Amino acid sequence: MNTIATKTPTAAYPVEVHELSDKQLKVMGLGNGDLEHIAQLVQDIDPMNPGTVNTFGQRAGEQTTAYADELLSQVRNGEVGQMGEQLVEVVGIAQKTNMNVLTGRRSNLPVIGPWIDKLKMRGMRLQNQFETSKEQIDKVITEVQTTVAGLSKRNETLEVMFDNVRKEYYELSVHIVAGRVALARVHQLIEQRQQIASNPAELQELSDMQAFANNLGLRIGNLEALQQSSLQMLPQIRVIQSTNFVLVDKFNTITTLTIPIWK
Fold it and tell me: What is the mean pLDDT of residues 50-76?
């Protein structure tokens, strides 16, 4: 008989939900208030029905899986990098115009007439340069505004995602603990059947139950891996949000402070 499942840490769990220790609950982020929920999930696992293992916790990690793809897409999105380059471009245009103003050559001619003409021409050139720079800046700012609106909206979506992942982490905790209790019950049944199994039918039933225990142990392991993934996802969401916030703040600084001062 296959005895892989009996080697899992879940064997140390009690066969009754109310016998769960505070430590066993606390390490999973749970408390006594979650016992009823755990008990309901334990009832969903039937050793006589192998299909209950396949469906156990099936929906508990759906969002984490979907969110992982969405986060990867946002990390790969070049929109944030492009926006950063555009903001640098805006400041660069403004600085270049200011430097040209400061480095405009001053006339040393003693005759006042040509000097005035030169001054007028230089003024016209500076005005044209300013208008050109203003058009360039306005164009880039308009493009960036669209990106900023998208980033702000995306941060709202990320906040919803963060809350949902936290809820899913809790739901996975409940399922994992319920699975461990159910597996402890199956282990107990296997030990009892081993004492009395004598005919082929009883031995086959014992073998089926052992296979059920193995599959349930694997299912619990998958849920644990999924929960670890959701735990790692939370700081990733915050990093993306922080990057977005910084860019939006820089944009607001440039449009409300840098550009007005430049003008």
Answer: 79
